[in-house]
Amino acid sequence: MSYDNVIELKELHRHYTMGGDEVKALDGVDLEIKRGEYVSIVGPSGSGKTTLFNLIGGLDKPSRGSVFIDGVDIAQLDAYELAWLRCRKIGYIFQSFNLIQVLTALENVALPTVFAGVARDEGLKKAEYLLESVGLRTRTHHRPTELSAGQQQRVAIARALANDPAIILADEPTGNLDLNTGMEIIDLLHGLNKTMGLTLVAATHDLKMIKASDRIVWMRDGQIERIERG
Amino acid sequence: MTRESIGQVHFSLGDAARLSYDHIKRRWGRAAINVASIALGLSFYATLVLSDTFYGTYEGVGGAQLSVESYQYWLVGVALVVSVVGITNAMLIAVYERYKEIGTMKCLGALDRHIIMLFLVESGFQGLAGGLLGFTLGMLAAVMTTGFNTGFDIVFKVPATRMLTLFGGSVLLALTLSMVATMYPAWRASKLRPVEALRYEL
What we know:
The complex is a heterodimer.
Chain A: E1 5-18, E2 21-34, E3 38-42, H1 49-56, E4 64-69, E5 72-73, H2 79-88, E6 90-93, H3 105-115, H4 120-133, H5 149-160, E7 167-171, H6 179-196, E8 199-203, H7 207-212, E9 215-220, E10 223-229
Parallel strand pairs in A: 3-8, 3-9, 6-7, 7-8
Antiparallel strand pairs in A: 1-2, 1-4, 4-5, 9-10
Chain B: H1 13-26, H2 28-60, H3 71-97, H4 99-107, H5 112-150, H6 154-157, H7 160-190, H8 194-199
Helix pairs in contact in B: 1-2, 1-5, 2-3, 2-5, 2-7, 3-7, 5-7
């Protein structure tokens, strides 16, 4: 069964205690994100956007409320099911790229296919195709230290696509890049969103990223302040 | 998607071996320290058991009765404990260095036991290398120290099965010690929550 809303957040709360005080990182968030949508999550630091990002990505569990990914409430899943969800349904892109330093670009991109149980040759072939599609055909056997920041982020994007996920989660993907390189990455992500129909959720400060998105969710003090159309 | 359609993630021993090999190859400095640590402890052990064997063989072919001082076995025990602690320490540092990497692996689908497997396989390789190196060094030392009393050809008079048992036992001991030393660091690594690991700045 296919759901129209690939992400649904219902009455989402995430509280934790810090130095004896209770911090309400998220305080009752409701949000629906449609398949193929490009949503930017914006807000000052401490507004709860990273917490929201982590909850959608199955990296953290809510204190209260539900997170539905493709119709399944991930708060109900055990560690094994969550790992599968992270592996197959969600592609992550980080501000600091987080590539495995000892592996080549090709091996980095093929790594998620290992966890998905794809045969090695097939995984490497897929990785080669993905690297080509992000414009890095000549860099497949370079290690992260031999690549520029923009190239590293392209490798990370290719890696996020390795298992054909339903959702791409990007946490400040242009935060460590200069203006032009950031622009290239935004164009690449936007293109993937449009051509492949990928759902793209990005936590960002970058005005250019915000402008390119379909909807902008403004966060403040753990709540959604307002939602704008892009 | 339904909950029933959720499958399983995969990560075989072969996958772990391949990734561990890459880690050792690219960060050979730390691996070298671990290998040296286990090799030194083990060479001391091998020297002692081999010397004992050489003296026994010498006596068997009509030579004088010679033996290894028993207190030396205590020293071997201490040396092995020291190398285990050294490896635990080095592997804990390796875990801290790889915080983000472990977090990333978990985002890509790794389970706790996959992370444990990765670290144990890596230390297994190091233990194996340390065992081979340690036994070789121990053999040299044993021949050098006993040879003046028993004759240097004594090494060829030891029955082959006895020699193989000693060799196999030593390498197995090195492998076991290296993996035991890594258990706690590997467990620590596996318990890292991806959120914390990714936020961590070294």
